[in-house]
Amino acid sequence: MKKILLSVLTIFFGVTGLLSGAGAGPENKPLAGKKVALVIASDKFRDEEFKEPRNLLLQAGATVVVASSKLSESTGMLGMKVKPEVLLGDLRAKDLTAVLFIGGVGASEYFHNRDAHRLAQEVQEQGGIFGAICIAPVILARAGLLKGKRATVYESEKEELFKGGATYTGNSVETDGRIVTGNGPGAAREFAEAVVNLLKQGK
Question: How much is the pTM?
Answer without folding.
Answer: 0.86
